[in-house]
């Protein structure tokens, strides 16, 4: 998948911070390929990038509009289709990670053909994914897991990749979601893979490794989320992780989208993930806890990390806001 850069990031009418996580993830981790943001007047959110119309963005160098939003059901609504049509008329290709494919919207397909534009459906998995085998693979692997969806698994994995690289340790981010794929340029959209092939898809993107480095695999969902635990289970088996990091939003009062389900306790969730992971790697171990403290004052965030570390006997941090140094130290010492 060759998506032309730079990007114009789409916010549209969104007013849900979690709902724009794809656009925000690109702005945070790949600002070098993001020209600006497109948002309507009723959108109160911003990525801190220049606000641009489609024609202005094209003339500023943008080549692809990334529909970096998530909505209920991942649908292409009428307004979103109209915006995409206007963007193509201005010269931009379209990239989307929504569940409803661009290629299945006749108006977009017709306009792309007529204008010579490209449509990129990031959630289209490869056609040659094998069934997982559980066969032991060479190399070292780390997987981020979560107490819930959207708690910082991608951010944690990317921050860890940067920190290991800064220490001269080979490490590669293995993307499993639409945002990560757009950031890395490759990966597998795991929630679009048929269930029987989930573990095989992860074996495919993280094959044998012989250079002493790490594959850092982006987690998805949660074993405790009734809607998405199946994806998390297949990912744990296919990743065959040597190490896991548990990610958590301490202000989450219920599982995302399910107000009738309370989040699990950290110790309970950690043990459940280790137990499932032991099917394909009996020696898996936990190396840290990652908290999303974005909504907490700095002093309160730091104190919460200290209390969590003491309670679980593992280094705990906010990887994006603070530092992953202690987790990297633990990882290096455990697998040196």
TrEMBL record:
Organism name: Sandarakinorhabdus fusca
Matches recorded under PANTHER family: DUF1611 DOMAIN-CONTAINING PROTEIN, GLL3100 PROTEIN
Stretches assigned to the D-glutamate N-acetyltransferase-like N-terminal domain: 49-125
InterPro entries assigned to the protein according to its UniProt record, in alphabetical order: DgcN-like (IPR011669), DgcN-like_C (IPR035086), DgcN-like_N (IPR035402), P-loop_NTPase (IPR027417)
Domain D-glutamate N-acetyltransferase-like C-terminal: start-end pairs: 131-328
Pfam annotation, one family: DUF1611_N
Protein name listed in UniProt: DUF1611 domain-containing protein
Species lineage: Bacteria, Pseudomonadati, Pseudomonadota, Alphaproteobacteria, Sphingomonadales
NCBIfam families found in the cross-reference section: DgcN (NF041892)
